[in-house]
Amino acid sequence: MFDVIIVGCGPTGAMLAAELRLHGVRVLVLEKATEPASFVRIVGLHIRSIELMAMRGLLKRIHERGRQRPAAGFFAAINKPVPDGLNSAYAYLLGIPQPVIVKLLEEHAIGLGAQVRHGDAVAGFAQDGDGVTVELASGERLRSRYLVGCDGARSTVRKMLGVGFPGEPSRTETLMGEMEVGMPQEEVAAKVTEVRETDKRLIIGPAGVGLYRVVVPAAGVSARAEPPTLDDFKQQLRAVAGTDFGVHSPRWLSRFGDATRLAERYRVGRVLLAGDAAHIHPPIGGQGLNLGVQDAFNLGWKLAAQVRGWAPEALLDTYQAERHPVAEDVLDNTRAQMELLSVEPGPRAVRRLLAELMDFNEVNRHLIEKIAATGIRYDFGAGPDLLGRRLPDIDVKQGRLYGLLHGGRGLLLDRTERLTAGGWSDRVDYLGDATAALDAPCVLLRPDGHVAWIGDEQRDLDGHLARWFGTPH
């Protein structure tokens, strides 16, 4: 019997498996695909996701395979400079091929002891008071205490669970692929620059030696899930740009829509949802992978606490309470960004107005922080502004703060050097450091790096330790 079975080994599933293994949870990940995706889509890790990778000691490996670019210009493709005051040691975007980040996270999970099985599709499941019985397409039956669906937008787990997925279907589609072009690079760049003066939906840029990444609006919404043809690309490029750029020899071709949906519930008993199984939205701003990975960080330590038997009564319920509103906000900002890409006069006027407002640093920073997920504040009750927010990677006497969080435990950072984690020391580490670059006497950090308490009184601290980390040993 497993403690947790995860369905889907994309970034969310792999990250969740790794987080659970940090706490000794017996994890099995089931991935129905036998081979990685044939296309190599470049995804961007935003500031908060980069911070999370640093917290677990993964950033060096990811940096070696990624490409750094400024943290600017990704809200509705409005070209503005990097705002002042982003307050992160990792204030940049890190582009990386999706198969590469999936492989790195899967290897990380396996290295920590997770079992991963490819080619195993889930055919059904049933839960009872003690666990979940999972039936595979092969007929094999597996038993687990919990089941988590990280199996994407068409989630089998969500559908079988009967959780509603309300929202809007796709109204438009976009074609995307990698191919060669028959025009000189400078002519391609000049034409794209000209077209993007009025239509920001066209993107053509280098994607490797001799290859270009091509993104162009589709003619309509396809009733079939089949990938587009090269002729589809040529037709749409001519319609949008007046030329097909001589595109040929495609490496891969795909289409995506702007459907926007959010699961009504993230948990039903012993079955939970995370990542695209819980929410889908247009890819504008590049938030999808990041939102899923951040779901995994929020859920992992809480589900592990439940399995290990020390979770406070309502801890697992805080997963939905915290992450559902975050997803709602992402859905809203992608809806807004899609409207701002419209070529209609009204949305174009709004776009010009917003571009003027983004000349104010506070507006620019607010929108960048919204996409980068560094502006999130969970509702932990009344208190200083830092309460409920993530703590940046500040300087401490042992180096950098995030280097102390690799084990996925809580941390008591005490500038007074007179408090203690006491009976919670098996779940919460302690650092007494009067020199820490922290504008507070003491903070209690959850394993996901969010500030759960601020103060200097032991009795008050003990109450919050119990709230987040259960009964002392």
UniProtKB/TrEMBL annotation:
Cofactors required: FAD
SUPFAM superfamilies found in the cross-reference section: FAD/NAD(P)-binding domain
Keyword Ubl conjugation: no
Recorded GO MF terms: FAD binding; oxidoreductase activity, acting on paired donors, with incorporation or reduction of molecular oxygen, NAD(P)H as one donor, and incorporation of one atom of oxygen
InterPro entries, sorted: FAD-bd (IPR002938), FAD/NAD-bd_sf (IPR036188), RIFMO-like (IPR050641)
Gene3D superfamilies: 3.30.70.2450, 3.40.30.120, FAD/NAD(P)-binding domain (3.50.50.60)
Keyword set, alphabetical order: FAD, Flavoprotein, Monooxygenase, Oxidoreductase
Domain FAD-binding: residue ranges: 2-334
Family annotation (NCBIfam families): rif_monoox
Name listed for the protein in its UniProt record: Monooxygenase
Organism: Phytohabitans houttuyneae
